[in-house]
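Weekly puzzle thread! Below is a chain. First person to post its structure in token form gets bragging rights.
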Amino acid sequence: MTDEQLAQLKANVDTYVDEVWEDVVADIARLVRHESVEDLGAAEPGKPWGPASNDALVEAERMAERLGLAVTDVDGYLGFADVPGASGPERYLATIAHTDIVPLGEGWSFPPLEVTRKDGYLVGRGVQDDKGPFVLSLYAAHFFARRAAAGETLPYTLRCIIGNNEETGMGDVPYYLERYPEPLFCFSPDADFPLICGEKGLYSGEFTSAAVAGEKIVELHGGTSGNAIPGSARALVRADASALPAAERISVEDAGEGLARVSATGVGGHASMPAGTVNAIGVLARYLLANDLAGEGERTFLTLLAQLTEATDGSATGIAAEDDKFGALTCIAGTVRTVDGRFVQTVDARFPTSTSAEAITATLGALAERYGCTYRQLSGEKPFYISPDSPEIEVLLSTYAEYSGKPGEAFVIGGGTYARHFARAVAFGPGGDYESRPEWVGMEHGPDEGVSEESLRQALKIYIVSIARLMELEL
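Winning reply:
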């Protein structure tokens, strides 16, 4: 592409984004209305992640059809939408984003299932992770679909993969890859710019108390998702509410019949970015311990919870690790529940190459024994890394730098994206404006999740120009 052709492309892209922007926001709002949280208990054929998730998938597929893309639903596991190219469907470039969300949680100041526009920001569950970026991927493809309709055939097929199970297990991608060839190159807009070329290992597990609840604690409940730091937690205890002392981040109310409800408020956030968060489960556990609101067996488990929430680098539990590529491990306590009279606490760790899921399980299993409870690993995936020295990644980084005026440098993260499931893929997205956003705008996975419209507008331009350049490569 000559400089003159590039300048003309960018001018056309500017005009296009101005033309479609209100439609983009409206489509984001259509998706946000769906509380698309996985519900395996309600799963059925064609709806493997439950009806609510499937509703969002169907909405997204209809959106893609309306934008002139050729849509395929893959048995309800996920879908994809194509702009056919000269290469045919076997050789294609892809984007992959997701339409499922984490649970809404508590603490919202705005309606979580509506898009609120305020001071240049969009607020609502999924506007950043990942319904907003997903809609951008469709409109980027729509730009090329309109050109194809005018006779400009792409060298490669462009495919927007519509994920529907990213937040819980990413079981949709293996199902897809069993049936379709890998993309020549793929990027996920579920990310922060400039570009993510590596991701820590992903790990989760759970502790289950040996003691039956009920001596003093009737119920423990905290957090909304295993991969998020809980912003709230509560306990129903046998106590006189009027006799319990006040404490920072703690509220107490009478629950009748000799019971009190003790609620803790923390600062929630994504499990991979625990800096600045306050784990409400830890706040609650320490209050209950300090005020003798636990029986003997219950006290042992609360002491474990206090230890789990003492630090987020694994040092309190003996699993700390780091390397020169990914930095330090993170580990958080995500949800606590009362199940069949016992307490169950989940943990989420993101680990570097210097440790393994097996090593983490061995250490946490030994810790569980010391506290008289049981432990089991729920999941474990190795770290993912792709060298940033490739023509495809150079295209993405240079386009980002041109639009942002910032250095285009690849980095690694503790989060997990769809990129780790493909041979040649990266994460390339419009998040990351955390320092500049107003205090009332929340982060992904937390209350009042928000993203700036300007960052989304710029991302759409970056995606279109990047795709045009990728189409010129010999792949």
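Puzzle host: Confirmed. Bonus trivia for everyone else. DSSP finds nine helices and 24 strands in the chain.
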